[in-house]
Design goal:
The chain is of the alpha/beta class. A hairpin with a 3-residue loop joins strand 1 and strand 2. The longest helix has 33 residues. The protein starts with 7 loop residues before the first strand and ends in a 12-residue tail after the last helix.
């Protein structure tokens, strides 16, 4: 018989307009009785759910996470209950025997035996910061889409600035584009006063690149895109200011994350909003990396490994850590990550190597936050020292010399 962990617990099946809750109460003879009740998702009814749980002395609650519909239920139950938020794949009912009532009973049965792993939910104030920064990432994507639309319009108009300049939206290129939009009929204007720095060396190429015609329709489209981009920049600035203000009480944790090479201030804030400051909620650094989608999955049957690909988890934090890893391997003051990246890339390729660096960085963040200490580069000095080459055979020695850039010529033994 499975051990009963929670003698009195509740399983809640969440929907958009209603929730179905079942209280499973187990007596000393291991006989379980069930009470099921349906509540709407209006605040008044959710408060009635809290009272109903209180009258039945139920504190342990398991909720199936369904879209965003679980959030208002979670917010109202959070002050008075200990909530386990379950991923749907862990509480999936048997196909063909599935109703809302049976789903809630099934969730309660799994939870009373402690068989449901809970999802990580940070405190309410950190959730607010996370929500803002996830919205910011969407706005950044919108701005990138608008840049692509502007570039498409320039290509259609045969304005090939992207072939000459590294950034079509840089200072010089933006000034030239602004003049073209204001004076579409002025084909032979003097653009040299608009150039800055190294762009002065590309005058001849720029003259060829802007030899095109922007139609009235394309000009209007570009103007709308640029206006939208400016509005998005203002929204992003407002979100960043609000997020920084909300994160002020956690400045020490953010400073610890920022001390790691490759992580800038706002990236540190974004990482903090995803994982929080309390590392005790994760069993180990491996658990954190698995939660972030940076660990290989286990798919083994009949003694054969079918796949070791990383999971789809960490939709927001994984791309962020990959960006930080790309910055870390370019840090000249701390070459450890670059060395490890090159060693793994030589065997496994760029993608696996950069994921490995991202996992190393997240592991370091876990231990730094757990110990409440800043990053210490001295701990990596020993590993940065290149080990001496030990040749196990003549063939191995030849390969080592060739790898170091020497040409090896074998001389025949004299008789």
């Amino acid at each position: 018989m499975l051990k009963i962990v929670y003698p009195i617990c509740c399983g809640i099946d969440v929907h958009k307009t209603f929730v179905v809750a079942t209280i499973a109460a187990t007596d000393r003879e291991n006989i379980t009785t069930y009470k099921t009740k349906r509540f709407s998702t209006f605040t008044k009814d959710l408060r009635a759910l809290v009272l109903w749980l209180s009258h039945n002395q139920c504190v342990q609650v398991c909720i199936e996470s369904t879209g965003k519909y679980w959030i208002p239920v979670y917010n109202i139950l959070e002050p008075s209950c200990r909530i386990t938020l379950a991923h749907p794949k862990y509480v999936k009912a048997i196909r063909g025997k599935k109703t809302d009532k049976k789903d809630s009973i099934w969730i309660a049965d799994l939870h009373k035996h402690g068989l449901v792993p809970g999802s990580f939910i940070p405190p309410a104030d950190i959730r607010e910061i996370r929500d803002l920064l996830r919205y910011r990432s969407k706005l950044v994507s919108f701005a990138s889409s608008e840049k692509n639309r502007v570039q498409n319009s320039l290509t259609v108009s045969n304005i090939m600035l992207s072939n000459v300049v590294s950034d079509t939206f840089g200072k010089s290129a933006s000034a030239i584009l602004s003049h073209l939009l204001k004076h579409p009929d002025d084909q032979d204007f003097d653009f040299r006063p608009l150039l800055h720095g190294s762009m002065l060396k590309k005058q001849a190429d720029i003259a060829l690149a802007i030899d095109g015609t922007i139609s009235e329709v394309q000009s209007g489209k570009i103007s709308l895109c640029l206006s939208h981009m400016d509005a998005i920049k203002r929204y992003i600035a407002q979100i960043e200011a609000t997020a920084m203000r909300l994160a002020a009480p956690y400045s020490d944790a953010i400073r610890i994350i920022q001390s790691l090479p490759g992580i800038r201030p706002f990236s540190a804030l974004a990482i903090f909003s995803e994982i929080g400051a309390d590392m005790s909620v994760f069993h180990s650094d491996k658990h954190l990396c698995s939660w972030a989608g940076l660990a290989p999955s286990n798919d083994q049957s009949a003694g054969k490994k079918k796949s070791v690909r990383i999971s789809r988890a960490g939709v927001y934090i994984k791309p962020l850590l990959v960006q930080c890893a790309n910055a870390a391997i370019k840090d000249k003051d701390f070459p450890y990550y670059r060395t490890r990246y090159e060693a793994i890339k030589h065997r496994r390729g760029h993608k696996r190597a950069i994921i490995a660096i991202a996992r190393m960085m997240l592991t370091a963040i876990y231990h730094m936050l757990s110990a409440n200490e800043l990053f210490n580069p001295a701990l990596y000095e020993k590993s940065q020292c290149k080990p001496g080459f030990v040749a196990s055979s003549e063939q191995h020695a030849v390969k080592l010399l060739q790898r170091l850039g020497y040409s090896v010529v074998k001389i025949a033994d004299s008789v």
